[in-house]
Design a protein that fits this description.
It comes from Variovorax paradoxus. Mean pLDDT is 90; it is low at 1-29. The protein contains one helix and 33 strands. Strand 21 (302-309) and strand 22 form a beta hairpin. It has an eight-stranded antiparallel β-barrel with strand order 10-11-12-13-14-15-16-17. Among the domains are: 52-142, Immunoglobulin-like, CATH 2.60.40; 150-241, Beta Barrel (Lipocalin), CATH 2.40.128. By secondary structure, it is mainly β.
Length: 458
């Protein structure tokens, strides 16, 4: 019996070695291997459900019982996706059209609708497509009404930031300042533009007129004279817009900037080239008394600030090295171009400031424009080679005749302008495709300090 057990154990050992490829040199091969089945690879979890959130006019929106979102013409619509997607929008019927926004990207879609019908709502469909065949659809019902109706932020040349609500169907408006002081009235057609009726504007002529731009207006309005007591009013230029760039990385650019400021005792001007870079996180300003292109600005005259999102939608804060807020600004898309805008009371100096910056250009092209100035005038500007003229709209009286000159190291799209009747009256001229800017020269002895003209190029 013991012999039989020993024989059986020996046989088992031999079979075990054979199954392991042992028992002989040269390894591997002979014998029957002991079977091994690897565990199957885990099945990847399905992709997360694609989710879309809809915001209309800055608030999260709720669809109706049929799953359709109601939107008025001109309201900003933001659709946010939980994953990177491709967007496809199409009119499902009716007369709706849309304006795509610069802030549209892989995870959000930003637009405004128009409806050309005076009587019927129109439908529009937006589809988001993500990886692995995931799709979601949003349906909109675009109501009737003027596209230009709605709320705008006003940057006024009296150094204030205000709010404009305007209704082109009812032809009514109201303007509210930072203190909550509201003025309202009606407006009507005036040739190619519009004219405000307002109790602040006595008699004729009424220079409170404005011209529409895409999601913006340029015009003149009777704003409070800075630091006046009791308060008095005077027509001053303004830009009103709702077309802000809200994606920080898209703020980048170089801008030729004109700036006016008012204290209780005086007024002044400043002209400079500025640059926003590093994905919209850094601003550099050349504050030298001489106006340089930003890349040629002496290092001691370059002020570098950190840009951060402000609590007010559309605005950005500027912070110094200590983290203190030194100003606020917005970048608006005006007729397809980025325009720098800033207005309000300076936290550092307690003065009232308004600034406008146009994209730095390689040249200064001739043009005709209609505009408004801080002296209360409404005027027509004409630029031909070497000459800038301002005339009253009734014409042909020339109120300013300026010689344009190129100054060494000055930005290429900027010109110095000398009054032909009195060379001590000096200005700087700059422009974008659609906006014309003329600003008085800086300095306590400059007779043009604090002067600003803003026009719309025709």
């Amino acid at each position: 019996m013991r012999e039989n057990i020993r024989t059986a154990l020996a046989a088992a050992v031999v079979l075990g070695l054979a199954g392991c490829g042992g028992g002989g040199g040269g390894g591997g091969g002979g014998g029957l291997p002991i079977g091994f089945v690897p565990a199957p690879a885990p099945t990847p979890p399905p992709a997360a459900e694609l989710k879309l959130t809809v915001e209309i006019a800055g608030s999260v929106a709720t669809p109706d019982g049929a799953g359709t979102y109601s939107v008025r013409p001109g309201q900003e619509v933001v659709v946010k996706a939980s994953d990177s997607v491709g967007w496809a929008a199409s009119g499902g019927g009716g007369t709706a059209t849309l304006t795509n926004d610069v802030d549209t990207g892989a995870t959000q879609w930003v637009s405004r609708f128009a409806n050309s019908s005076k009587t019927d709502a129109a439908s529009y469909k937006l589809e988001a497509s993500a990886s692995e065949g995931r799709t979601k659809q949003v349906n909109f019902a675009v109501q009737t009404g003027s596209y230009d109706n709605g709320d705008y932020m006003v940057f006024a040349a009296n150094g204030s930031r205000q709010k404009l609500h305007i209704d082109f169907d009812a032809k009514t408006y109201d303007v509210t300042d930072a203190a909550g002081d509201k003025t309202s009235g009606t407006f009507g057609a005036n040739g190619t533009g519009w004219v405000f009726s307002n109790s602040r504007v006595p008699g004729i002529p009424n220079n409170a007129t404005f011209l529409p731009l895409k999601d913006s207006f340029a015009g003149g309005f009777p704003f409070a004279v800075p630091f006046s007591s009791p308060v008095t009013y005077k027509n001053a230029p303004f830009i009103a817009t709702r077309a802000f760039v809200t994606t920080q990385a898209k703020l980048d650019g170089t801008y030729d900037r004109a700036r006016v400021e008012y204290t209780s005792a005086d007024r002044n001007s400043a002209t400079a080239q500025i640059r926003i870079s590093d994905g919209g996180t850094v601003m550099k300003q050349c504050v030298d008394q001489k106006i340089y292109r930003i890349e040629n600005c002496p290092s001691g005259s370059v002020v570098t600030s950190v840009v951060a999102a402000d609590t007010e939608a559309g605005l950005w804060t500027l912070k110094d090295a200590s983290g203190a807020v030194i100003g606020k600004f917005g970048i608006a898309m005006v007729e397809g171009e980025k325009i720098y805008l800033s207005a309000g009371t300076s936290t550092a100096l307690a003065n009232q400031v308004m600034a406008i910056g146009v994209p730095a250009a390689a040249t200064y092209a001739n043009f005709n424009a209609s505009g408004w100035a801080t002296d209360g005038d409404i005027n027509l500007s004409t630029v031909s080679t070497g000459l800038y003229s301002l005339t009253a709209p009734a014409g042909p009286v020339i109120t300013k005749s300026l010689t344009l000159s190129i100054i060494a190291d000055t930005p290429d799209g900027m010109r110095m302008a000398f009054d032909r009747a009195d060379a001590s009256h000096q200005y700087f001229a700059m422009r974008s495709t659609k906006l014309d800017v003329l600003i008085g020269n800086r300095g306590p002895s400059s007779p043009t300090r604090g002067y600003l003209h803003i026009g719309v190029v025709q």
